[in-house]
Amino acid sequence: MNKEELKIYEVVFECDGSATGKMRSELDVRMVKPLKESFVLATDEGKFHGGDGTAPPPLALFIAGLVGCVMTQTRAFARRMNVQIKDLKVSARVEWEARQYGIEPYETAPKSFQVDVDIDSESAIGDVKKLVEVAKKACFIEATLSQSNEIRHRLRNGGGDWVDL
Amino acid sequence: MNKEELKIYEVVFECDGSATGKMRSELDVRMVKPLKESFVLATDEGKFHGGDGTAPPPLALFIAGLVGCVMTQTRAFARRMNVQIKDLKVSARVEWEARQYGIEPYETAPKSFQVDVDIDSESAIGDVKKLVEVAKKACFIEATLSQSNEIRHRLRNGGGDWVDL
Question: Which is it for the CA torsion A51, A107, B70, A63, positive or negative?
Fold first, then answer.
C-alpha cells in the first residue's frame, strides 16, 4: 500500500470550430482547467485537398502539439529533477496510411511514431535518460496516443436535438 | 474475397522543435507525403507552468488539430457522398488527469473525449449520419486516438550517438 498522499490534477480543453471558406476551420480553443485561458487557431487544407492553404492543415497542429508537449515536460521536470539542460531539440515523424477499396470511402490508421530527443547536458547520462522517461509519462499527448481511447460523438441537424452516434 | 482494387495512400509529417525562452518551442513542421509543404508553428506555456504565454500551449494545438481534422473530412466526404452542407460546426471537449503520489513525478492519462457535430443540411438524416460515420473513420487523428500506439524514442546528449530508449 502506498502511504504517500495521492494528488489528482484535472486538465480540460474545449474547442469550437466553424467552417469558413472551402476547407478552412476557425477554431476557438479554451483551457477550462486548471486555469481559464483562450486561444484562436485555424486550419485549412492545400489545393490538392480542396482548400485554399490559408492556415496549416490539422495534422501539422497535431504533430506540433506532440513535439511541444514533450519539450514542455522535459524542461519542467529538468528543474524538478535537477538535470541541467543547455539546449534541447525534439524531432518527430508520424506516418499514416489511408486504405481504400475501389471507390469506397477510405479508412485511415497510423503506421509509426518516432520521437527523437536531442539534449545538450553536462548531467550524468543516467540522469538525462531518467528525465526523458519521466517526461514521456508526464506528456499528456504521449499518454493519450499510448492507449486506445473511446471518442463519444453526438450529431444534430438544423438546430434539432443532439443524438448519440 | 474483395475483388475491388486496394489503394494505399501514405501521409507523413515531420516536426523539428527548438527550445527558446523558458517554455517556448519553435516548431518547423513539414508535410513529407503526399506533397511537400512546410509550416511554422510555436507553443508556449502560461506563467503558472513557468512560461511566458507567447503562443498557445501544446494541448490547444492538439484539440484544434482534432476538430480541424473532423471538419476537413466531413466536408471532403460530403462532396463525394452528395450530402449537402449549409453550415458546419464541430466542438470537442477533452479531459485529462495527472496523478501524483507524494513528491513523485506525475503521470497523466486521458479521461474522456467528446466530439459534437452540428450540421445544417437538408439532406436525409440517414445520409447525414452516414457522412459523419465515414468522416470519423477517415479522420487521421480520430483513427490515431482510437488505437493504442507505440511511440519509439531515441536520445542523444551533446551531439553523441543516438540511443534507443
Answer: negative
Return phi, psi of residue A5, to 5°: -70, 135
Residue B68 contacts A where some CB pair is shorter than 8 Å: yes
Please choose, from the candidates A59, A130, A36, A128, the residue with its C-alpha nearest in 3D space to the C-alpha of residue B140.
A59
Alpha-carbon gap, residue B9 to A159, rounded angstroms: 36
Q: Is the pTM of this model over 0.90?
A: yes
β strands within A21-148, DSSP E: 24-33, 37-43, 87-101, 107-120
CA dist., res. A143 & res. A135, Å (int):
10
Beta-carbon separation of A2 and B101 below 8 A: yes
Distance from CA of A77 to the nearest CA of B (A): 8
To the nearest whole Å, the CA of A65 is away from the closest chain B CA by: 4
User: What's the rounded Cα separation, in Å, for the pair A138 and A73?
Assistant: 7
User: pLDDT by residue (tens digit) across A134-155?
Assistant: 999 999 999 999 999 999 999 9
Predicted ipTM?
0.95
